[in-house]
Amino acid sequence: MVPEIEKASLEEIKHFQEQKLRELFVYLNTNSPYYRRLFRKHKISTEAIQTLEDLIRIPTTSKEDLQKFNDDFLCVPKKKIVDFVTTSGTLGEPVTIGLTDADLDRLAYNEAISFDCAGVTDEDILQLTTTLDRRFMAGLAYFLGARKLGAGIIRVGAGIPELQWDTIEKFRPTYLIVVPSFLLKLIEYAEQHTIDVNASGIKGAICIGESLRNQDFSLNVLAKKIKSAWNIELYSTYASTEMSTAFTECSEQQGGHLHPELIIVEILDKVGNRVPDGQEGELTVTTLGVEAMPLLRFRTGDIVAAHFTACKCGRNTLRLGPVVGRKQQMVKYKGTTLYPPAMHNVLNDFPEVDSFVIEIYSNTIGTDEILLKIATKSPSEALLQAIKDHFRSKLRVTPDIEFVAEEIVQQLRMSKLGRKPVSVIDRRS
After folding, report:
1. Residue 169 CA to chain centroid, in angstroms?
2. Can you give the residue ranges of the AMP-dependent synthetase/ligase domain (predicted)?
3. How many helices (H) and strands (E) would you count in the chain?
């Protein structure tokens, strides 16, 4: 099911995307109040945007823009919207994204080719361990994509290891769609109930929300812990509600593949210039084929590196490396720049740590502070000192650490409106 454009030459892919970009520019100028206003303000004509290089002439769109002018991004009458989803906003209130029938078809196509990228076929059954409700786009995308691909899908929802294992044993799915740290919960439950995970029939997991790999694509600590107990293939997938598009690993597991018919990618530095190939920068996307709320040069806030060499799987598309961190979650702590994923890796080295949450806040003089709240069944001064020493060894600094009850960590990780657990709470103003 690999689209021909993904196997085309880089030059052919570029020409294809430039044609799609010209079509998008005309569409936005005709239908988007927000972008029409932006083009007029900056005196950008339809003829001015012909190539991918011309994109640099257009100001980027931020999540704050999307929140402040939410309705002005809508390109169709509201009666054409058949599904409403929301995503977190920078100003407190969630951002609403509307989808038309055509957008749902695009979402299904995106997820079908993404599943195919990870080796899923119409012979497989997927078990969905994330929510399908609460205005959450991802769960809907997985369901629609499985149907489009012709695979089976079981909608179990989040949490409840007992129900997950009951479903695995009854229906024998072959893939899980899962937050990777939840796989450790499934392994723990299996060990407690004499379930042989390697006789379960699960051959792979499509992993969302947490990184599995280091920047060189080697398995990180979390992935190694999973693989040491459960011999299944782990595939990373990265997406966001705003771009309605996923970047999923193939069998080579060397980064998430771009779907050039669905999205244009730029990697930008702090001042908005494109970084050299292979260097880290902020992922900035332009959506293609979106009817209701297409976005032009949307800054995702995620820091990544792009890789451009041809993949052994036959695709010639750009691949995104693991997310280094969220731009807004970058911490300058005691002179050291940190991103939460680096702290995740340190904590994942300790089997005694059952769960944790990272709180970031500002002190009285306006500098960043970090507090780790850790749940463990065996709190001790020795464990605390070992964690601190490991932080100094790996990251050169040691955050404040306190042991708390598991219930407190879980309450912090899931807000009342939460659709997926969070491991970072940023309390900076």
Report:
1. 29
2. 78-287
3. 11, 20
**What pLDDT, on the 0 to 100 scale, is given for residue 416?**
56
Q: Which parts of the chain have pLDDT scores under 50?
A: none
Could you give phi then psi for residue 300, rounded to 5 degrees?
Answer: -75, -20
Residue 381, SS3?
Answer: helix
Residue 198 CA to residue 226 CA, distance in Å, equals: 12
Q: How far is CA 269 from the centre of its chain?
A: 20
pTM of the model: 0.83
Encode pLDDT of 252-303 as tens digits.
999 999 999 999 999 999 889 999 988 999 999 999 999 999 999 999 989 9
Sequence-ordered strand ranges (E) for 109-243: 125-128, 152-155, 175-178, 204-207, 233-240
First to last CA, the chain: 46
Q: Is 368 exposed, middle or buried (0-12, 13-18, 19+ CB in 10 A)?
A: middle
Number of Cβ within a 10 Å radius of residue 339: 17
Q: What one-letter code names the amino acid at 220? A: N
Measure the CA–CA gap between 131 and 106, rounded to whole angstroms: 20
330-426 has which fold? GMP Synthetase; Chain A, domain 3 (3.30.300)
Express each pLDDT in 365-424 by its tens digit: 677 889 999 999 999 999 999 999 999 888 888 899 999 999 999 888 876 555 677 888
For residue 91, what are the CA distances in angstroms to 10, 65, 68, 116, 270?
39, 10, 8, 37, 21
SS3 state of residue 316: coil
Q: Which residues make beta-bridge pairs with 287? A: 263
Rounded-to-integer distance, Cα 299 and Cα 251, Å? 29
Q: What tokens appear for 418 in the block?
A: 């939460």
- Candidates 138, 109, 38; CA nearest to 289 is 109
State the amino acid at position 55 in one-letter form.
L
Fold of domain 1-324 = Rossmann fold (3.40.50)
Give just the sign of the alpha carbon dihedral 174, 179, 183, 188: negative
Q: How far apart are CA 47 and CA 59, in angstroms?
A: 17
Sign of the torsion angle spanned by Cα atoms 101, 118, 257, 186: positive
Q: How far is CA 349 from the centre of its chain?
A: 23
**Residue extent(s) of CATH 3.30.300.30 domains in the chain:** 330-426
